[in-house]
Amino acid sequence: MYLTRLDVHGIRNITSAFLLPKEGINILYGANGSGKTSLLEAIYLLGRGRTFRSRFTKTLINHQARQCTVFGVVNSEKHTAPYSIGVSREVSGSFEFKVDGRRVSTASSLASALPLLLMNSESFQLIEGGASGRRRFLDWGVFHVEQQFQPLWGRFQRSLQQRNKLLRHDKISMRELVSWDESFVRLSIELSDMRREYFERISPVFYDLISKLTSLKGVALDFYPGWNEDQALHVLLKENFDRDTKRCTTHAGPHRADIQISVDGLSARDVLSRGQIKSLIAALIVGQGKMFHQTISMPCIYLFDDIVSELDSDYLMRLLNVLADENAQVFITGTDFLPLTKVLESEKNINFAVFHVKQGEVNSQ
User: Fold this and answer.
1) What is the model's pTM?
2) Contact 184, 163 (CB under 8 A)
3) Contact 187/152 with Cβ under 8 angstroms?
4) Contact residues for 304 (Cβ-Cβ < 8 A; gap 6+)
C-alpha cells in the first residue's frame, strides 16, 4: 500500500501543496517551521481524520482559511485499481470524509483505507508515559487484524460508562451493581482475550526487531489485562465495591490494561537513555507494521518526524533496510537530508526521493 498523490490545502502554513511520493523512502527536509511536519500531519489526517499535534483539530487549519482539505490517491495490493481518500475539516468543527468518492461517517473507515503508523516526539510516551498510550498502541494492532475488535470495544466502553454512572448514584446496593457486572465481566474477558492473543502473536516480532535494531539486552514485554488475574474479575469487583463507590469509578478492567516494558527486571523508563528509548520505540513501531503486513498481506505507511536526531547512521541503516524489506512507503522529516541520503545511497536496494519544503511549498530534488 502506498500513496501516489497528495494534495494539501489550508493546513497550518501550507496554503496549497502537491506531492507525488515514491513507493519507498520519502525524505521531507527544510528549516524549522517550513511545513515539513505539517505534510506528515496532512497524511495522518487522511488516515485518522484528526491531527497528532493537538486535541483540537481546528488548530491545524491555516489562520486565513475557514477549512482545510487533504486529498490522496492510494495504490493497494488488495484493490485492482487505485482509490482516493479525501478529508475536509472546518473551523466550525464540521467535517467530511470520503473513501473512493463515497462519504464515510467514522475515522475508523479512514484507518482501514489508509493504515499508518507515526513516530514523533510524543512517541517517547510509549515508554515514559502512562498506560493509556501503550494501550492505544496495542489496540491499533488488534483493530487492524481482528474484525470483531471495534464493535466489542464499543460495547465494553458503553458497559463501563453505565457502571461508572451507577457508581455516581447517592445510594447504591451491591445487589443492584452485580446485575450490571455480569455483562461488564463478560465483555472484559472477551476484550482481554482478544488483546492477549494478539500480544502473544506479536511478541516474537518485537523481540526479533529489538535484537536486530538495537544493542539492548534483557528487554521484556508483558501484557497486563487491567486486573490481577490471581483473582476472578467478578470477585475483584466485589472487593473493590467500597473504593469504586467512593471514587465513582471502576478500578479494575480492560480500561486499565498495559504493556509493561522492562530491562533486566527494572522499568525501561528508569534505566534507558534517551537514545536507547528512541531506538526501542522505533523497533516496537516497526514491529506493529510487520505484524500488520504478515496478517493483512500488505504493508502499512510509516511517518517518522525527525528520526535522525539521537540515532546513529548504523542504526538508521538497519532500520531503513528493515523497512525496505517490508516494501513499505515511508515519510521522514528532518532539517537536513544528507545524513539520510548518505545511508540510503550506500544501500542500492532502497528506492528513495527527496523533497525540499520551504515556507509551505514543496519541491522535489
Assistant:
1) 0.90
2) yes
3) yes
4) 119, 120, 330, 331, 332, 333
